[in-house]
């Protein structure tokens, strides 16, 4: 092997540590160590002399180990926040985040921690951000947390009731709120997730006039569009489409007679089929309406409704719906957490195929029920019910895991993103963060 | 929770006391100057990084950022002044050097201010340090009025130098181009490209004017081509790739498009190149002219009129008119010539008309035994067959079969009638009526000897083949006669059947009037006239004499045997005086017959198409018919329409009830 020529000696806060330039190269050009490879500074030419860095030596050691092995091991005596600050100093924060938890797998999730919020009312929605942060909507406020679970300034749009929140990217959050009668307030706004400032307010135009409106559910597409269900003052019921880059309204799908779009509880953009799923559920309306909209042809390409369906004794009402493009089906769930499936390939579904396997807890309803919610991630189906989340896998959607903790009451919403699952409880203003541990050493 | 928060705030407060923003900035400002002065030996990267970090951490990001902008602006203004002061030729070198220095400094400054770049700039919505450095250089150096013009002039001068044959520093130019592009494509466009294109247009305008006056077309094109290549090279050596299309457009427009007509019509232009086989020049002209709008169209126009002109000259040339293709002697030569004929044939649109004439000539050659070689005839028919398909040549091939069958039949006839060997020999060619271009004509009266023979043959043949009908084509045969003239001269006369009939009459008479001959032979008068003409009026072939001695044969003329007939040859071939060329009415006749033949073909094609397609609109049907028939001829769309209508009348087709343009096949 011979003598290693690329040794580098550091004196960090009085402790001398040695490493190699190969290890430091793992930090990348955009870090403080990146400058060490810049010949202009002549930093590593002399292997004998040591470089003094006036920082915490314990944290430097942990970070150096991260560069060496790609793994993060934080001794109990180092507070995480201190480590994060040091990582930020060296420009290694992204390395720390990447090493902190593993790639998402619904069957290996562990509760990482629970966060207590200060909101006065019930939770409305929780949304995972693309890089591990999240935002939580309570009443008229949205609280934003980064991946280190540091809270940023909260968001509000004219202090109107928040109906839905969504991340455009890790720096931008859109919230949709109810309108305030006669004031032109409300609607939909784009906020900086770091500073909480309002960057843009979206308008609805009807016959060339700007109208005030209530923005309901939100969805985003990869070609930079924002969709929102809208209820306007004068007949602007339907789904609006805006451009994320220009902020301009580019389309509006007016609600057909006898159908519900403007009140929708859920929008889901389907990349594969270029369609938008719009679902309005009981109890917002007396009936359920689920449809797929094709904006290019301005028509409903698929629809289903329980209008006129006879109700049996064990009343099954659809409470949430999610399209599963890979299976060409829509999954729905009722208040007893029965999963049901509808075929997307025929243009109108006739009936729901209820899966009896997933019938889990008939009749045992808690005092303050939360209606089930559905999510889909990498072929795994998630369903929340009361205080736990069930994970279903495989072509038959077998129950494979159950996430539960006892404190905080029922789960009113949950969201998956940035390799994390966030679950918001309704009673205690608490949300849980579930992560997949990093892979085993061997 | 709230206790913790208070503690934290206290700490932060302490920190804020811990740094003096002015002092920290002064230190960083000094460092920035030292970096620009390339004197970094006294600087510690870690210390500078920590200080910049502290300023951002303690909310002095604004001060740090505006300080950086201010200091860098001051340095760049200084650089601009020193650049303005540079003398003469070293301006670009100096600019390149300063640009490199600035970039190096910028990189180091960014490394110091990395924390500000990462944390403060995105949140405050400021321009990142890298971009800031470029922007400030652009505003303070490039956009400085003096430098802007001087830079442009220096660059244009270099280009001009290279165009006039000087060697320039391409590497330096490339660096400056890269600088302008780094500052933004619009900077490259504004500061250099726009003017470069204008100046280039002027340069090439002047050059083409000069060249047009003194050069031949070929030389001009050669220079234009090399200029084009030079410009493309120039772009690849030291300009931005997006300039290539623009500069080649300039050269195309100024050198070629503006001089398009002059170049084509020059004395040494297109026609001269075509006439003198200047393939290289022609290739060059094609390559260059295709780049400009209308270029190839103009070539096409001039070429068309030239070809038409040459074609007309060829047709007008009396010597070549008779035999447009010269036949060689050896078989190979014949092959080559036939191939050439086939090439011409491919360009014929009305192949069926050709067929009709070809058939007639072939018939004559075969019947009169005039073919040079059967093999050649057959080989040409094989060529026609490969070109046009079996149907086209089946009749022609049928003619050959008839010839062969006839030979066998004759052999059979004489074997079965051995007694006949002593009398005159009859050779009959039995022609299938469909295959040969025969017309039904009145059979003339044959001499008694012959007609007896003919009847024998007829009964022999009909005995062999039941249910056939023979009719004698007396206008097509030949005969060899042995004649003894007044003074005992013996000759063998090779004559046509008609001529034979006439001459045989003189075995029993010395003088016969036209009327008598006509009555005795029943030869149609037009044929009889030309027959008598060739017997009595052709010099050295006049076996008959006529009274009165006029040039034409009249109905009141009388004929004698020419006792004074002399010839050096024993065998005398007496031709028939026929008009060599077809007369106008004959032409029309042929044409009409061809048209007539086309009718069933067109109808059959329409029915075949409709049978397979069932439903088709008018335009597509016509197109399809044309496509299927074009190997034989180009059908006239109105003719096709007429046939469609006729087919509708006869209820092969009907119009669609909803769309009148659609036809439906009825079955």
UniProtKB/TrEMBL annotation, chain A:
It is found in: Endomembrane system. Transmembrane segments: none annotated. InterPro entries: Beta_prop_At2g24240, BTB/POZ_dom, SKP1/BTB/POZ_sf, T1-type_BTB. It holds the Pfam family Beta_prop_At2g24240. Residues 6-76 form the BTB domain. Pathway: Protein modification; protein ubiquitination. GO terms for cellular component: endomembrane system. Its main location: membrane. Gene3D superfamilies: Potassium Channel Kv1.1, Chain A (3.30.710.10). GO terms for biological process: protein homooligomerization. It comes from the Eukaryota. It is a peripheral membrane protein. PANTHER family: OSJNBA0029H02.24 PROTEIN, POTASSIUM CHANNEL TETRAMERIZATION DOMAIN-CONTAINING. This is BTB/POZ domain-containing protein KCTD7.
UniProtKB/TrEMBL annotation, chain B:
Belongs to the cullin family. Residues 298-536 form the Cullin family profile domain. It comes from the Eukaryota. The lineage of its organism: Eukaryota, Viridiplantae, Streptophyta, Embryophyta, Tracheophyta. The keyword Ubl conjugation applies. This is Cullin-4A. GO terms for biological process: ubiquitin-dependent protein catabolic process. It holds the Pfam family Cullin_Nedd8. One of its GO terms (molecular function) is ubiquitin protein ligase binding. Keywords: Isopeptide bond, Ubl conjugation. Gene3D superfamilies: 6.10.280.240, Cullin Repeats, Cullin, Chain C, Domain 2, Winged helix-like DNA-binding domain superfamily/Winged helix DNA-binding domain. The keyword Hydrolase does not apply. PROSITE patterns: CULLIN_2. SUPFAM superfamilies: Cullin homology domain, Cullin repeat-like, Winged helix' DNA-binding domain.
